[in-house]
């Protein structure tokens, strides 16, 4: 591996050679650098046998402190700016209690939580090169996309919408209640079986009896027509999908809804190619853009 060669050089030829390394297992992200023109982790990158020499350089377009060590201050500040921690409006659970999350909700975090903040993706992005101070970059936006799924459901009865309002479902209004005959017409005309409706059925914050009612309605609906038209006719609610435990949906969307913070991404997809963990930051950024249109 490239890291083994660097350690050999440091130990036997040039003790002043400076680079970051720690786990040597592709877990910590410390040894990120550019090798033969591609960003990656030195501990996971094999030395090419196709040429007599390999070129190793610091991560591109970053201030170099010494040799292969770059200044990560701006990168970490951008990561901090998306507030990558749970924020809740409800009071904290009692001591010894946890915030429950279903296996299905946990599975939705796959492809995001594995990020090791090595900066390979951000430093491979031309948009990040051009706007390093304003554009958040693929890594920060990947973490920001533990964002909401804006869902739809047929209007529940008063006791149900009161609970939804208390749990942070935005836009639930008694005035927009659909009568039974309208509900049946919608059921005949449009499909409610999309993943948005299913997300509500599996919401652990809803009492079991309410979830069962939603499941029953779901089982009675035909499979036809589009979710988009239905969404324009039904109650508009917002909940977290990538991390169902967070309750600051709108605030997080507003914080990154900026010409530079988000929309400097031009879907070049260098970030996806460079990620040593096989993640897809470009897809997550595209998801955020779509959510901004729906918000």
Automatic annotation (TrEMBL):
Cofactor info, note text: Binds 1 [3Fe-4S] cluster.
Cofactor(s), by name: [3Fe-4S] cluster; [2Fe-2S] cluster; [4Fe-4S] cluster
PROSITE patterns hit by this protein: 2FE2S_FER_1, 2FE2S_FER_2, 4FE4S_FER_1, 4FE4S_FER_2
Keyword Iron on entry: yes
Membrane topology (UniProt): Peripheral membrane protein
UniProtKB keywords: 2Fe-2S, 3Fe-4S, 4Fe-4S, Iron, Iron-sulfur, Membrane, Metal-binding, Mitochondrion, Mitochondrion inner membrane, Oxidoreductase, Ribonucleoprotein, Ribosomal protein, Tricarboxylic acid cycle
Enzyme Commission designation: 1.3.5.1
Catalysed reactions, as listed in the record: a quinone + succinate = fumarate + a quinol
Pathway assigned to this chain's UniProt record: Carbohydrate metabolism; tricarboxylic acid cycle; fumarate from succinate (eukaryal route): step 1/1
Ranges for domain 4Fe-4S ferredoxin-type: 105-135
Primary localization class, coarse: mitochondrion
Highest taxon, organism lineage: Eukaryota
Pfam families linked to this entry: Fer2_3, Ribosomal_S14
GO process terms (BP): respiratory electron transport chain; translation; tricarboxylic acid cycle
Subcellular location: Mitochondrion inner membrane
Domain 2Fe-2S ferredoxin-type: 1-62
Matching InterPro entries: 2Fe-2S_ferredoxin-like_sf, 2Fe-2S_ferredoxin-type, 2Fe2S_fd_BS, 4Fe4S_Fe-S-bd, 4Fe4S_Fe_S_CS, Beta-grasp_dom_sf, Helical_ferredxn, Ribosomal_uS14
An example molecular function term from Gene Ontology annotations: 4 iron, 4 sulfur cluster binding
Entry's family note: Belongs to the succinate dehydrogenase/fumarate reductase iron-sulfur protein family.
Function: Iron-sulfur protein (IP) subunit of succinate dehydrogenase (SDH) that is involved in complex II of the mitochondrial electron transport chain and is responsible for transferring electrons from succinate to ubiquinone (coenzyme Q).
Complex formation: Component of complex II composed of eight subunits in plants: four classical SDH subunits SDH1, SDH2, SDH3 and SDH4 (a flavoprotein (FP), an iron-sulfur protein (IP), and a cytochrome b composed of a large and a small subunit.), as well as four subunits unknown in mitochondria from bacteria and heterotrophic eukaryotes.
Protein name as annotated: Succinate dehydrogenase [ubiquinone] iron-sulfur subunit, mitochondrial
């Amino acid at each position: 591996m490239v890291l083994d060669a660097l350690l050999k050089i440091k130990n036997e030829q040039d003790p002043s050679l400076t680079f970051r390394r720690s786990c040597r297992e592709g877990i910590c992200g410390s040894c990120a650098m550019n090798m033969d023109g591609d960003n990656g982790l030195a501990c996971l990158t094999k030395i090419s046998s196709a040429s007599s020499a390999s070129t190793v350089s610091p991560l591109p377009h970053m201030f170099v402190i010494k040799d292969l060590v770059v200044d990560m201050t701006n990168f970490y500040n951008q990561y901090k700016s998306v507030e990558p921690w749970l924020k809740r409006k409800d009071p904290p659970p009692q001591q010894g209690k946890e915030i429950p999350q279903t296996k299905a909700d946990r599975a939705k975090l796959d492809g995001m939580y594995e990020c090791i903040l090595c900066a390979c993706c951000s430093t491979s992005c031309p948009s990040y090169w051009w706007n390093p101070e304003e554009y958040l970059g693929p890594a920060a936006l990947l973490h920001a996309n533990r964002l909401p799924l804006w869902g739809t459901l047929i209007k529940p009865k008063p006791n149900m919408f009161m609970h939804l309002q208390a749990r942070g479902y935005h836009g639930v209004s008694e005035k927009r209640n659909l009568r039974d005959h309208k509900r049946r017409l919608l059921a005949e005309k449009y499909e409610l079986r999309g993943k948005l409706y299913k997300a509500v059925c599996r919401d652990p914050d809803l009492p079991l009896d309410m979830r069962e009612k939603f499941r029953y309605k779901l089982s009675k609906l035909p499979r036809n027509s589009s979710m988009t038209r239905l969404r324009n006719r039904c109650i508009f609610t917002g909940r977290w999908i990538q991390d169902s435990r967070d309750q600051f949906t709108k605030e997080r969307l507003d914080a990154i809804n900026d010409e530079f913070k988000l929309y400097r991404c031009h879907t070049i997809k260098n970030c996806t190619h460079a990620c040593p963990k096989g993640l897809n930051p470009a897809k997550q950024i595209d998801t955020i853009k779509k959510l901004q249109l729906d918000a």
